[in-house]
Amino acid sequence: MNTPLRISLTSICPVPVPAVSKVTAWQWSILKSAFTALMILPLFLLLTISSPAAGETKRLFRIGTGGLTGVYYPIGKLIAEGLTKPVGEKDTPGASVKGVPGIIGVAQISAGSIENVRAVVSGQIEAGLVQADVAAWAFLAEHAFAGDPSCRAVRAVASLYPELFQLVTRRDANIRSVPDLRGKRISIDEPGSGTLSVVRIVLAAYGLSENDFSPVYLKPVFTQDKMAHNELQGFALVAGAPMKAVTQLSDIGLFLVPIDSKKASGITARFPYLVPGKIPSGVYPGIPETPTLQVNALLVVSAESSEDLIYQVTAALWSERTLSLLKQGHPQGKLITPETALTGLSIPLHAGAERFYREKGLLLKGTRSP
Asked: Among 3.40.190.10, 3.40.50.2300, 3.40.1410.10, 2.70.70.10, what is the CATH number of 164-295?
């Protein structure tokens, strides 16, 4: 009797990372490539090993996320699991949706929103998690995407949850406002991330630039040791809260730098999808409610993706199975609901997603997606 092959597709252990103090930009690039290769290898083996129970060709549905200690990656893993049809599961008329036939979802680490958009429209990945403001820039071919009309092909599947701008500092660094960053050593994420774009917007609102402090361009996973040893006084990330990169550093004494409400309103006037928000009290031990900026996280695909495929992906995303995985798998997953699927969209829906929402009565006849 043949035993079905069972491989965990969305919970593959990350590769060991080098000591933080020795990681350079090019080493991080190599590390990302190595991680992706190691993650996809078991999937490749699964796809190439014949199985009597298979009966259908499988293909990868790659979802670009972010760094390992942010929120995009764990949320992307849960979505990937929800899109993957359980082994041996058969389609039954009238049964609840359980994955998309013929695809295997996989979450890939990346630099973040900007890189994800470019990878999606170029066909390197099938979907990506992207900040709403970055998605809008891509669709309008402006800011980071100026002169690149190819990125206008980005389309939305859903709005997922609000992301918060989090400027995390060592309490003993005495950074109590954005101007206090002067002269400090702060990590502001790597090129290709949505965080770096927001940091620059915030700095400009306060009349500052990267020349006013010592910037470091690292993902939070590489800042923890440096923060612990006071080699960095802070780091920034746009992500849901709580964020693993922050909770793991609670013992050293942290402070969240607030964004002044007038500055936040001024930013919103120029960048409509960056709006005033709050990091609730108690999300991180000992840290009170903190005013900041927020932006919605979107799941995006290319306009060139098959309408039928994206219709099925949207249906699987909002299935009971995927919603249960999200709710149980991450605190931010509880905020991902069909009722807010169209909240804060900054780009048009993909035709397949739009068809799904119209059928479910979430997008009324005669109305148009953004």
From this structure: 3.40.190.10
